[in-house]
Amino acid sequence: MTAERRRLAGPGESRAAVIASLAGDTAIAVTKFIAAIATGSSAMIAEGIHSVVDAANSLLLLLGMHRSRKPPDVQHPFGHGQELYFWTFIVAVVIFGIGGGLSVYEGITRVLHPEPLGDLTWSYIVLAAAMVFQLASSTVAFRQFRRVVRGQGIFHAAHASKDPTIFAVVFEDAAGVLGLVIAFLGIFLGTRLHVPVLDGVASIFIGIILAAVAVFLAHENRSLLVGESADPRMVDALHQLVADDPSVVRMSRPLTMYFGPQHVLLALDIQFHTSLSASDVAAAVERLERKIRDQFPVIKQIYIEARALAAREPEHTQQAGRSSPRG
């Protein structure tokens, strides 16, 4: 099994992570707003907004996953896999604009006009319940993300993964856990120190965390939307596989592009031995395509520009391009 095959989570696994996150965020949002109404806590309002945004984002991710599975058509010959990248980018915009923006606004308002908090029993109960829900919903996503990390750094692994649904859910869940801790500290310290302004400060920090997550997601998806190449190690392995074929004299560096988490297009420019006939070149192209698909099932379309000088024929160029039926 290749490194590229191991690194990619299946679509069913990604969907399970998103659905688990949606269920958890919905339950968390309800409990947070109950506490916000009971106590008037700015931090709890910010956390409630955070969870509503997370739940809405899960719906957007599910929409992107559904649309990305549409088959190719005349206007989209390579399929609709990049729909997933588009909707994940929209998720980043929603997190930044609604989640981060409203949380910071609510916090600044409370800092400028601090008010004493009400009965905090509700807040502590809800924070504890929300933490349980958050950790439960995070379990599925973190389990899938561990398969992606495999000894790499978290940010490097997120960049290496071409399935944005996994790292989007993971970073949202991490922000959720951190936000709950900050909300607790804002409420607890604001009450103990008799400084209610700390509740508003906590809301501002929660907003900043959400904005940071949004910027990271937007950056990663921008790269995928504009046509990111496959992992350099995969490209090097492809180059070595083709160069090792006895019929190949030289080749340019393989050109790759992601059209979805498990959909890569490959273009090759190969110079074959001059002694090969046209039929020999065609056979070599078929052999190489078969080897490439066996080792890298994520590659769905292969386009090869094959060049050779036949022994008794003038120079000619043949082009071979086939797309896998799995695409």
Describe the structure.
The chain is an alpha+beta fold. 66% of the residues lie in helices and 12% in strands. The protein has 10 helices and 5 strands; from the N terminus they run H-H-H-H-H-H-H-H-H-E-E-E-H-E-E. The chain has helices at 3-7, 11-39, 42-68, 83-112, 121-149, 154-160, 164-192, 197-225, 232-243, 278-295, and strands at 248-251, 255-260, 263-272, 299-308, 316-323. Strands 1, 2, 3, 4 and 5 form a 5-stranded mixed β-sheet that branches. The radius of gyration is 26 Å and the shape is elongated. Residues 1-9 and 309-327 have low confidence and may be disordered.
Provide a brief overview of the structure.
The chain has helices at residues 3-7, 11-39, 42-68, 83-112, 121-149, 154-160, 164-192, 197-225, 232-243, 278-295; strands at residues 248-251, 255-260, 263-272, 299-308, 316-323. The chain is an alpha+beta fold.
The largest pleated sheet is described as: 5 strands, mixed
Question: Unreliable segments (pLDDT under 50, ≥5 consecutive)?
Answer: 1-9, 309-327
Number of strands: 5
Give the fraction of residues assigned to helices: 55-70%
C-alpha Rg (nearest Å): 26 Å
Separation, N- and C-terminal Cα atoms:
20 Å
Find the structural class using helix and strand composition. Answer: alpha+beta
Helix segment tally: 10
Beta-strand percent range: 5-15%
* Topology pattern, helix = H, strand = E: HHHHHHHHHEEEHEE
* Gross morphology: elongated
Mean pLDDT: 80
